[in-house]
Amino acid sequence: MDKRKTLKQKTLLDFINRNKGDSSISKGAQSKVQEALSLLDMMDKNIEAKTIDETKDKGREFSVELIGNVDEQFEEEIKDIEDWPRPLYLLAVIYDGDEGKALLKLYDEVEEKILFWHDRYGHKPYFLTDLPPDSVKSIAKIVNHPSFDHIETVEKYDLLLGKKRIMTKIVTKDPQAVATLRNYVPKAWEADIKYHDNYVFDLQLIPGTLYIVKNGHLKPYKVKLSPEVTKNIVELFKDEDEETKQMAIEWIPIFEQPPPKVKRVAIDIEVYTPYRGRVPNPDEAPYPIISIAFAGNDGYKRILLLYRPNVEFGEVSKEYPHDAIVEIFDNERDLIIEAFRVMNKYPVILTFNGDEFDLKYLYNRALKLNIPKYMIPIKRTRTHLTLRKNLHIDLYRFFDNRSIQAYAFEGRYKEYTLDAIASALLGIAKIKIEEDISVIPLAKLVAYNFRDAWVTLNLTLFSGELVWKLIILLMRISKLSIEDLTRSTISKWIKNLMYWEHRRRGYLIPLPDDIKVLKGTVKTAATIKGKKYAGAIVINPPTGVFFNITVLDFASLYPSIIKQWNLSYETVDPPEGYCPPDKIVKVLDENGNPIHEVCIARPGLTSQITGLLRDFRVKIYKKKAKDKSLNPEVRSWYDVVQRAMKVFINASYGVFGSEAFPLYAPPVAESVTAIGRFTIRNTISKAIELGLKVVYGDTDSLFVWNPNSEKLEKLSKWVKDKFGLELDIDKVYKYVAFSGLKKNYLGILPDGTVDVKGMVGKKRNTPEFIKKAFYDVLAALGKVNSPEDFEEVKNYVKDLVKQLYVKLKSKEYTLDELAFKVMLSKPLEEYKKTIPQHVRAALQLKALGYHLTAGDIISYVKVKGKDGVKPVQLAKLTEVDVEKYLEHIRTTFEQILSALSIDWKEIAGISKLEAFFKLH
After folding, report:
1. Which of 219, 402, 413, 899 might form a disulfide with 424, Cβ 3.0–4.6 angstroms?
2. What is the pTM of this model?
3. To which CATH superfamily is domain 261-471 assigned?
């Protein structure tokens, strides 16, 4: 009996036994379970293969029937709950176009399912204008529009002008009408906010927290804080104003409430393609889905395979998931329907790039196979793919967030591929395959497909579900639904939080143009092209090696400045009469010249929120995360809390200093950097006065050579007293090698670990053969303990570079080793003004029918000819431009060598190298 038949027999039996008691399986199918078991009993009695072939279709019929009655499985309507016995976690708020209402998706931990609640309060879309109601009524295009509902007058406080304003609220029947009607008034406020976000703001909802549904009404579940916690908060924030104290008490429950434990499954698909190396276009879905893998946090492990007569099952490898259920389908349509049935059972579906491939391909392939739309759980939105009843998290979109990469994971992964992220965070990579996915044996396909699903799931499970908990915390802080949070940038998170706070306090959300008109003046000249004002200070570094370097760091410098100086779009450069004269302070640049004024009569909104998050992190949660008297699970939760706060805090200046941010006020950003420069300059002067030797400074760090510990303490105390800022020891290096360039050095820690800043060899797109050599040199440098040891390193580098030259000239490297690997950061059609090398290579692939999208890694080599590059798939070793690679070797190692005071010519003089080649 061949392996396919044996496996099919086993998996059918597993499927029947697993689903016998499943109420979601149709009764008709359940009644045939015994008949199917009898059939399998006959198969077990060594019936010849011929008999199994004859009964194969019958067995498949039972298998398909066990998928269940279509009507029972897929036609269940979304029903609102009226009462629920337990608190539910709010995971999403969306707009239900069919009902014309906001729809909330709530999760029940006990029953492990999503429940639904439509708006009961008559909330409708709207925008604001400063035209009086009578004027609005006279605009026929508004009042005669079929989606116009009514108008109201509302009172708002305008932070920009510092006064109350009566605004006219134009209410519509559907969100799309807002985009049209806003054009018929001279100025429209709050008209570009998505309806579901507006709903969250108006009802002051906090996604990710608990709610109670009773008598059809929704209300937040109140977390009971112990008197001890409340007392502790009051004590910690005793020096703050009353409003900030109250905010601290109101915010604490979102950090103390535990996260939901949500049932979820990761899905990954593999698709047949007749063209090696090409990814089929998911919009067209031209080829069959040959494998679908599931990995659930409830232990669910299953792979659905499409039987193909010319593909062998093959040998089972060590990577093969022996504890997973593998089912072979003769029909792709049945395979996809079964996948949809599984997806319907899980409240959350996880993918990696599912928006652009897995779910998109499944959706379009299902339509192509004439699977009715009501059976397809996938739903398209303008921004992503979701599920009609459940939720979809695309982890690629989440990990692609620069703030998550830099602040939550401290740059541990460099590329945004599943392989790179899993290798860095889990220590487990994708399974490598040399052959095309379409022709590998089924056993190998199973292993490859399942590993991808398993890795995707485990990105939400490792370190005590760190990523999952982080997502929940970020939802709570930003007030964003889970699908929006995981697909948007930090800019959107902070904007959402700021808008939510504006609405809570009855503030008018300002127009970006109004802020720029009133707060658009800058006073300093930018030193970096494209910037509007002077940025951070970077002290010119020396060239050479300095032993015993201590790095001092201003803890959260920019966020601390925002809080300490009360910086916010409404407080900086206030209009005349806005602020009492005795409540105005001046912002000085590094030379002591006044450039802006700040009103300190009341807390600035940005200052208050940024400062509160910073204080929560520093004063409470960083300490709790290290408190070993706490339960490890609780301590782990607090560590996630402080990480989530770190993401917001560290990005706060970045977004407020960006012109694309709607609350961008140039004087605010300019004041932050000016105060930073002033602080650094004065701290360096004080350090010199104390006898400390500062050899380098960068933004918020000072590099001090061979310092005295008592003097460091004195400097730290002076900074605290003078500026109210924390100056801490960040790192101690055995030595630092400075190249003479700003932001370009390498430091060796006492354990031999090497910190590299700004050097070419560290960049992720550097070819593997150069990167390996670069890291070999770093390893050698890590062993240096004295100046005398550098002579040995110098000789080592000489030999290494010569080896690179010889192998390069002799064409001994493979194309893969020579490849530059660069990610497409946006769709190809968006590269217009400049066409980078990796895009040129991508365009060559596109011309041959390859489907490429944002997030794809383009591997290319440098060649002679017009384009100068070729994708690895199309290149030959004979085409490689050796001279370009020799230049890249030079630029990589010259940085290290100059830091070590070694002349490049001494190592790689052309005449010497040519002589070397002749001798070989």
Report:
1. 413
2. 0.84
3. Ribonuclease H-like superfamily/Ribonuclease H (3.30.420.10)
